[in-house]
Fold ABC transporter permease.
Amino acid sequence: MSIWKRKDFAYQTLMNAVMVVVLLVIMFPLVYVVTTSFSSKQEMLTRGFYLIPHDWTVNAYGYLFSNANFMKSFWNAIQITTIGTLINIVLTSLMAYGLSKTWLRGRKLLNFLVMFTMLFGGGMIPTYLVVKTFHLIDSYFSLYLTAAIAPFNLIVMRSFFQNIPVELEESARIDGCGEFRLFLTIIVPLSMAIIATFTLFYSVQNWNTYFNAILYLNDSSKWPLQVFLRQMLIETDIGMAAESSGFEYSPAAKMAAVVIATVPFLFIYPFLQKYFNQGMLLGSVKG
């Protein structure tokens, strides 16, 4: 074996070892949360640290799924994620497509304003006053509209639209295709990779919405899942004991709630993975 092959073998071995260590560091807390969510209350409270429970039980999951407040917050999170992501993608793609056209009047000013918002934000108090002025307090539109367009996502999508051959659009216009129809029938099908990528980004953002929900939603019945999890994690007793089963609020219930909040995207990501891998680089070719 030559010296270069030995160096290459040593390098590959080192990289594999590093990746194994990184994988263990990432997987350890995940395995701990999942396994302890199947533990009994007595084992969680009396036994020390462990990864594999002695007595496997689904009491924690049964407790949560039978709890009306938890199920309500779960449904709220689904509603916020679905409608919010739809609004995000529609507004971001439409604005990005418009800003990608050199013939658009005021294009430079609009692009500057988009870049400006990436550097300077309006602040929490001014934003709250705007939301309150438009009577959006305790409305989900306070969540949808305040985070409707992410400037970074807009810029990347605009760059992608700029890379689409102009000849395609000119041919469509010659055939009598209007701008909106051109966008729906030609641009959108060609942009599925970038749209799917930012659909995933926006979905995670909406699913994990927390601060804005606390800020704008005073009605606890409208709280999304992440706010409900916060209540579970910081309070020892929030009056949610299931009287019929006698199952008290326990660390196992906390772990089960975290698992339930994570599972939806574990199922969604594999379906978007091929688009996600393509879309990460598509918008970075042309600035």
